Amino acid sequence: MNPKNIKAAFKMRSQMKEIQKKLKQSTITETDKSGEISVTVDGTFKIKEIKLNVSELDQSRVKKLENNIQSTINKAIEKSQKSANSQLGSITDLLGM
Questions:
Q1: How far apart are CA 64 and CA 62, in angstroms?
Q2: Does pTM surpass 0.70?
């Protein structure tokens, strides 16, 4: 591999790490039209918080549901990312990276 390409690859990797760090710090919150569900996601697609504004349930039950929904969604996203990474890994192997 050409030394210039190696240097460029290391520079790109460093830039990617910096971008990932910034993405983890950024958040976006979306609320449904009824105002009953609010979801906050960071820039790496990790769900940071889910809020349910449901008056019929007791608050301890609502908090447990919020946590379970958040955890389940994050696990699904993580599995999806691992699958994508393994498929992309074959491309980087071909490029000699």
A1: 5
A2: no
Block means of pLDDT (10 residues each) for the chain, length 97 residues?
80 85 86 87 86 81 88 86 74 58
Q: Which tokens in the block code for residue 57?
A: 């349930």
Which CATH number, 1.10.357, 3.90.550, 3.30.70, 3.30.1310, labels domain 3-95? 3.30.1310
* Of 51, 57, 53, 54, the residue nearest 38 (C-alpha): 51
Annotate 22-66 with DSSP letters as a single string.
HHHH-EEEEE-TTSSEEEEEETTS-EEEEEE--SSS-HHHHHHHH
Amino acid at 57: L
